[in-house]
Task: structure prediction
Amino acid sequence: MAYTRGNSKQIIVGAAALFIADDSLDYYSSASAYKFSSASANGLPAFANGTSFKETLSAGTGDAAYWTNVGYTMNGLELQFQPDFGEVQVDQLLDVARLYKQGMSVSLVTAFAEATLDNLVTAIAAKDSDLTTSGSTNTLELKSGDIGDVPVERALAAVGPGTGDPQVTKERVYIANRALSIENVTVSAKRDTPSMFEVTFRLLSASNGSYGRIVDRTL
Result:
């Protein structure tokens, strides 16, 4: 194959649409599919030929009924992979002789530009029951928690542009099985700055050791 400088069609530019489920996903080998950890029959919707996964998640019925679009985001999303390596030092070398992987952490960082209380519940890892509706009034109860509380895990799915010929519709789907909001979240009301929620999700692996998956699709 002749040398080429590169392929500009493989450059990805553009933001992704972010969806959140109110439960985490786990992998069930018997069904060869991801289902919600609550053992509900619902989970991650299947890909439909010729249909963007954004539309599949927005359908509002079946598995899609459990997924919510967070709306506008700022600065897109970032997946951060942080491996932790141990070192083996020997007397005969001034440097390490071998590195071995002893840990791993994966994070997803984004900012919710729509400052709704629903998005704030996700950003501060609150329980869905903390947000109540009475008539036209929504109220988020800010609670400190109680002894024995466990972190709230949610599943994430993001759909953005994919690589390839721009004349062919392609998309890249990011799926996180277990996501926990772990960083400080600021709620502001300022004259010259929009109120948005910057959030960092720590990703944990499902029972099969998978943090999630990244899928490139051609519609």
Remarks:
- The chain has one domain: 15-218.
- Helices lie at 53-57, 117-123.
- The radius of gyration is 20 Å.
- Residues 15-218 form one domain.
